[in-house]
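Appendix C. Worked example: histone deacetylase
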Amino acid sequence: MGHNSRTARTVAYIASKELAQVSALLPSNRKRSMIIHSLASSLGLLSNAPNTSGEIRVVKPTPASYQDLAVYHSRDYLDFVLDPKNSQGLEVAEAAEYGLEDDCPPFSGLPHYIRYIAGASLTAVRELREGRSRIAVCWDGGRHHAQKSKAAGFCYVADCVLAILSLRILVPDPDSPAKMKKPRVMYLDLDVHFSDGVCAAFQSSGNSTFLHLSVHHAAPGFFPVSPLSTLPTATSDPFLLSLPLHRGASNATFYRVWLNVVEKVREAFQPDYVVLQCGVDGLAGDPTGAWNWGLGGEGGMGWCVGKALEWNVPTLLLGGGGYDSANAARAYAYLTSIAAR
Ligand SMILES: [Zn+2]
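Step 2, the predicted output written as structure tokens:
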């Protein structure tokens, strides 16, 4: 897919002052983005260190256009959320219809937020598709609960879905250049919450070139409640996989899950691209409190991300949940260092 050894190790890190400022407006994660990027920067991860084999390039995001967003979102939803009049703190009757209530309140700057977050993930995708980078990191993305016409679970824009759709644009088949093929995309979600928004986008699409695997916590009443978040059965769509884990999942749990499930699914599917949603709300210390997963060590989140990068498939690393900003910044700095290794 247009990759060569010269670009084999390059890592694109999507960041800009505007992105951090706009992303930091998210009510569930106020200021988090600024802390994440400033920690990565102050640790020297964003400059080319002479001892690392990789090269990190900071790439500024281009905000998404209306057309970019309309590839998935409905026009009704976009017309509502992109109109600044609807996010100025006044009661607007249709807000609830679009999910803009409870955990997704409208907030000042919402139109910019939506354009920047989608634009950041799409900028990362372009780095991969055009072969400039083997790994693209977009910690501001990963909003996996947003629906086509509705905000949900702190997610106002379905950047994961937009990124996947953009990676699946037809390209010349390397095995027979006269033909076009749809790249095979594997979406793996490590956030403690089930990726219901992404799953819904591809439900009953009958495709076999996209695979969804969500490893998450599920329990009665735990968000999001969905019949798709359970273990697959004989009649489930084999391309929309879920692996619910009990409370307290740890490095030992993930070590087994990785070797017995994730690796096997990847081997069977043989993706051309991997999209890895790295929500850090399953780590020990997160206020969500469902799992006891570690960042370092065998079976830790860093180990899992490192294993995924060993597949040597162009990979998009997205963020996600994580509700202690200092812990989240530490986690994302560590995962950035693994991407650069
Ligand atoms: Zn989450």
